[in-house]
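User: Can you model how S-adenosylmethionine sits in this protein?
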Amino acid sequence: MTYSMTESDLIPDPLESALSDPLDSEAVLSEDLQDDVEGAFSHVPVLAAEVVAALAPAPGKVYIDGTLGGAGHTRLLLEAGAAVYGIDQDPFALARAREAKLPGLTVLEGNYRDMAELLAGAGVTQVHGVLLDIGVSSFQLDDGGRGFSYHTDAPLDMRMSQSGESAYDVVNGYEEAELASIIYEYGEDRLSRRIARGIVYAREQAPIDSTVRLAEIIKRAYPGFSKGIHPARRTFQALRIHVNDELGALRDGLSAASALLAPGGRLAVISFHSLEDRIVKRFLLGDESLTPLTKRPVIAAEAEQVTNPRARSAKLRAAEKQSGQRSGTPGAA
Ligand SMILES: C[S@@+](CC[C@H](N)C(=O)[O-])C[C@H]1O[C@@H](n2cnc3c(N)ncnc32)[C@H](O)[C@@H]1O
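Assistant: Here's the modeled complex, given as structure tokens:
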């Protein structure tokens, strides 16, 4: 099976020209998603038209949405007549999706890194497309009890799946050097050692059990801070990435997705900061069975960036599986 789609279908001209730094760029860590999304009421799918153009959904086609979330993108695939297997690790997202009872959607609980096993359990070994819209959803950020936001006082949790080690365990249990390295590696914060030292000092007085207390401790490591982006943003991002092993899941998920694609099938990945985008870019360049659909990542048009702040840091990369890599028919066995 082959699909015909040209690059111009995927990248509208104004977007293409708006991209300044192509594949080789190592983009600076994006503005804080958390600050961007604060106040958003519900999850609006980013780069919706571009994702649909990249995945080319149609009646009879079968897709995996590895990050179901508020089912925004999934609805678009379903509206085009495709069937979708929607995966999420967040029990709250799953409950909402199940409640919606969307025709054509099969909801699967788990980590998208395990998509091969999850789909095999549903009798599916090959699909026409996979979407990953990685990171946290507006629902997760807006839910004050989850501990993702430093703007709302909440227990330090940050676990999307509600299982495993929480941010509380990391902040209160890890060695100073380990904390510093997480904050440096996943938050790219130059003051990582200072912040880690502050955390260790503070937890000796009393366990750090809330988002606001942690944010205050981090703020103290930035003595000159008065206004602008909160100093806690990078550390919160780092903890979230670590707690959910987001980069490990992305690496595994990309390999699993590539293996599940039928010849001509499409992979579309939306990332929100340079750490993720770098992994996606390198994967697409290194997987010989995939042909990138565009040289550069697609970014949101200005109008979308204005109406949906989450879109400001979004980058879409898409690729097509080469013919002859797999045989068989996508869908249920
Ligand atoms: C950015 S939101 C997706 C929003 C969705 N595309 C929409 O339009 O509504 C990311 C979702 O993916 C989930 N998620 C993130 N990492 C995951 C992983 N490794 N496995 C499964 N779900 C994951 C989160 O729980 C969240 O619900």
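A couple of observations from the model: The beta strands are 62-65, 83-88, 105-109, 127-133, 261-271, 290-292, 315-321. Residues 176 and 196 are 6 Å apart (CA to CA).
User: Helpful, thanks.
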